[in-house]
Amino acid sequence: MTNSSKKTVDELSFPEDICYHREHTWVRPEVNIVKVGISDYAQNQLGDIIFFELPSVGEKFAQDQSFGTVESVKVVSTLYMPVSGTVMEVNGELDINPEIANQDPYDAGWIITIKPDDVKIDNLLTCQEYIRFLKDVE
Amino acid sequence: MRDYDVIIVGGGPGGYTAAVRARQLGFKTALVEKENLGGTCANWGCIPTKTLLKNAEVVHLLHQGKTFGFNCGEITLNYASAQQRSRQVARRQEKRVEALLKGRGVDIIRGQGELTNNETVEIKSSGEILKARSIILATGGKPRSLAGIKLEGDKIISSREALQLIELPATVVIVGAGPIGLEFATVWHRYGCRVTVLEAMPCVLPLEDEEISREAESHLTKAGITVRTNVRVQSLKKIGDAVEIAIDTAGGQEVIVADKVLMAVGTTPAIDGLGLEALGMATERGYITIGVDMRTSVSGIYAIGDLTGKLPLAHTASAQGIIAAEIIAGKINPPLIYENIPRCVFGVIEVASVGLTERQVRERGLTIQVVKSPFLPNGKAVAIHENTGFIKLIADASGRLVGVHMIGPHVTEMIGAAATLVSLSITAKQAAQVIYPHPTLSEAFMEGIHALAGHAIHL
Fold it and tell me: Which of B219, B315, B405, B438 is catalytic?
């Protein structure tokens, strides 16, 4: 399990090659699909994650719509779609070891993959824009 | 070798509560757990069964479209999915316990612990040695069977295997009409299984007040569960895919057949492998003997929870765990009054009680006042279509509440208020000054209080 003390934005990591949503999910385009997870900021705020409530493969959601929840020892948070699309895969590992999302939020801790309705990601934030957004909130 | 102030063996509700309290008191604390944190409660008892019961309650509601204004046609039940949810909930609660312990700075040591002397715990799998001035044993209990009947885990099962069933048999016999037996009876009956409950005593829930037991039995029977009391199980025999149960009844011997048999006749303390015999620890009928301070007969060693055989409930273990930690810290506590610990039963109808039964009070020769406050006229109960059951209140000559027994909707959530009054020795006249909100089921309790105080409005 993670060290549950809060880190500052500067101490967290935000890969440059992905896009970020204001509700703290990230999107990484892969071949034909995009991969989605929660940011290092989100997992740090949540603390030890104990459960994900996730959709089924084939379900469709619009951008900004809730597609599930993540429960930590302290709180339950809503997960918001960073792009519109259809759920293609759900990370089964999170069912057994939800804390992977704390330990490795950008890789092994991925949550779902989506077939996007269109590849419009211009209303998402770049790494620098997300960091600035977080610092304003901090 | 690692040195601690306190080592706790067992991470169930008793153990982890003791560990958290020990840390609050400034002790360097280790907790040894050989299986899952949260113990029987989170993993093989309280939590998964309440999850299944909620699922069963929803199934039950789905059959009541005529009453509640809907029509959903043919309902397909999916027990496997209900069971999966119960395992998921158990895992979440297990993780909560882990996070709690880590957050409070308790060292969690995984493995089976054996006491090599009164200050040392050896972890069998790793050979690790832990030392502490004080050791709290909290390894709990495990399901037991009747003499001569082996729990082979497939056709003859305990609650542990019962919680792992993904598919229900067509017919099942449950031996034991205590709280555990009745929970499984409710869930499985609602999921389509034909259930027969056998009880050796003259009534179901033999530890509850007799009027409560009779009312509970009538609800089980009305729900379609076959209940047979005054029945002793002689033997079980596997015949092909089924089990033959030979029973002794008032009318003679009989044989009944079922696909599976659930033995729900109680638990036995889990003391295997702890090394207690070599330490010469005093036990009574297998349970570890403890004083009011949770001390065992071996200096420096305490025991709590199901190991002690004192009202084997999770919240008893937690209360004992707090006391043990505080005793180690040199605090003096008033003794735990086990009778004032509330007991709950979940199922087709809920039961909750605290204090003495009417029989126990009369056996003590106390002059008492008894009132019954039914849910029948209660507005909220009628509105939710569950105006059934009652609350029985017993007061002594001075008007102090000595027993409260409830059967009806959501009574398990109401017993806390009654436990407060009983534990604090509040009289009915004092309690009658408290106003309860309307419309709630809890007003039935308030009516009972007013009746004891001599001025019931609605009764």
Answer: B438
ipTM at complex level? 0.81
pLDDT bucket at B159, cuts 50 / 70 / 90: very high
pLDDT in tens, B127-139: 999 999 999 999 9
Q: What is the spatial distance between Cα B363 and Cα B379, in angstroms, rounded to a whole number? A: 36
Residue B68: CB atoms within 10 Å: 9
If you measure CA to CA, which chain A residue comes closest to B91? A50
Contacts with A95 from chain B: Cβ below 8 Å = 88
Which one of A4, A50, A99 has the shortest CB-CB distance to B96?
A50
Check CB contact under 8 Å for A51 and B98: no
CATH 2.40.50.100 fits A16-137, yes or no: yes
CATH class of the B2-143+268-338 domain in this structure: alpha beta
* pLDDT single digits (tens) B183-202: 999 999 999 999 999 999 99
- CATH of B349-452 among 3.30.450.20, 3.30.70.20, 3.80.30.20, 3.30.390.30: 3.30.390.30
Chain B residues whose C-beta is within 8 A of a chain A C-beta are 88, 91-92, 95-96, 98-100, 102-103
Given a cut of 60, is residue A1 above it in pLDDT? no
pTM of the model: 0.93
Would you call B458 a catalytic residue per the annotation? Answer: no
Q: Does A75 touch chain B (CB under 8 A)?
A: no
Domain boundaries of chain A, sorted by first residue: 16-137
Rounded to the nearest angstrom, the minimum Cα separation between A82 and chain B is: 27
